[in-house]
Amino acid sequence: MPGGRRIAAVTDAHFDVAAGECLTLIGESGCGKSVLASALLGLLPANAQTAGQARLGDLELLTSDERTLARTVRGRRIGLIPQSPAAHLTPVRTIRSQLAETVAALTGVRGRTALRAAAEAAAERAAFPADHLDRHPHELSGGLAQRAATALALVGDAPLLLADEPTTGLDRDLVEHTVDQLRRHTDDADRALLMITHDLAAAERIADRVAVMYAGRIVEITDAASFFGAPGPRHPYSRGLLQALPDRAFTAIDGMPPELGDLPDGCAFAPRCDRATGTCATAPRMTNAVACHHPHVAEDARA
Questions:
Q1: CA terminus-to-terminus distance, the chain
Q2: What distances in angstroms separate CA 244 from CA 240, 247, 250, 287, 301, one per listed residue?
């Protein structure tokens, strides 16, 4: 809230995700993806304001109090793989002790032997090596810290798994391992997965559907096969993002994303868009799953 002004970090974010489905939320850094995740879990700063609805089954998340969120949502109904996992692990405790504590809190398992076995089982589910369980977070590589965070997120068997940039900082082999592991977990347990990422290659590997966010708004939602294949995305920004994929001819999007506190009038993408006209001085509404006055149609989306 610079200078006392309120900033709308996320606006008009309409989407759903079903059991057994992976929805990837993609967009450049700073577009509001992680703010949205924090809102779902009640982890926004104390001075933040939310409006609208965010329903998980019969529970309204945005109006739930901290006691409800802490005792019945976080870990139990929504598992979180946080951005920068190493920063969210307790630095002075071993991974085994953190897993055992989480198991005790979320499952009711008691007794040293039972907790030890449950912690080892949780580590195995996330492909975390047993011979690293007695290490501290600072002794782990980025990939192992990510697996430790994943193991913690899976303990409660939550029906919704929220993975916030789970592949950041990983090499390509670990990225592929991570997204395949999340995909198997979703398929095997019939759980919903919301993955927030700016890594389009990872999104292409795992997604059933894709939601694209720009300047705090979702500008397109479509199935992954259509988005990454034919006929392709309809929003000009979405099409520009695809040019960053390794198997496509690289074409940079001109300009920079706007600051959320200084958005242009009308369409926020218009200053960077080669399809913009005077009509774009008015903000477009989401129509047929795309928020654009001049969306690409099937014939030119293949271009």
A1: 42
A2: 8, 9, 6, 26, 16
Q: DSSP letter at 195?
A: E
Would you give the DSSP letter of residue 167? T
Structure tokens at 221: 């939602």
Q: pLDDT (tens digit, 9 = 90+) per residue, 46-66?
A: 888 888 899 998 899 999 999
b vs e for 31-47, b when ≥16 Cβ sit within 10 Å of the residue's Cβ? bbbbbbbbbbbbebeee
Rounded Cα distance between 158 and 162, Å, is: 10
Helix (H) or strand (E) holding 23: strand 22-26
Q: Where are the domains of the chain?
A: 16-77+158-227
Buried b (16+ CB within 10 A) or exposed e, 229-268: eeebbbbbbbbbbeeeeeeeeeeebeeebbebeebeebbb
Rg (CA), the chain: 20
Give Dmax (Cα) for the chain: 69
* Topology, domain 16-77+158-227: Rossmann fold (3.40.50)
In this structure, the number of other CB atoms found within 10 A of the CB of residue 303 comes to: 7
As given in the structure block, the two tokens for residue 227 are 């988005």
For residue 162, the cross-strand partners are: 80, 194
Task: Answer for the pair 57, 90: CB distance below 8 angstroms, yes or no.
Answer: no
DSSP 47: T
Phi, psi of 164 (to 5 degrees): -100, 105
Looking up tokens 């509404």, which residue turns up?
285
Whether the full predicted model's pTM is greater than 0.85, yes or no, is: yes
Q: Using an 8 Å Cβ cutoff, are 200 and 223 in contact?
A: no
pLDDT digits (tens, 9 = 90+) for 138-175: 999 888 898 899 899 989 889 999 999 888 777 788 78
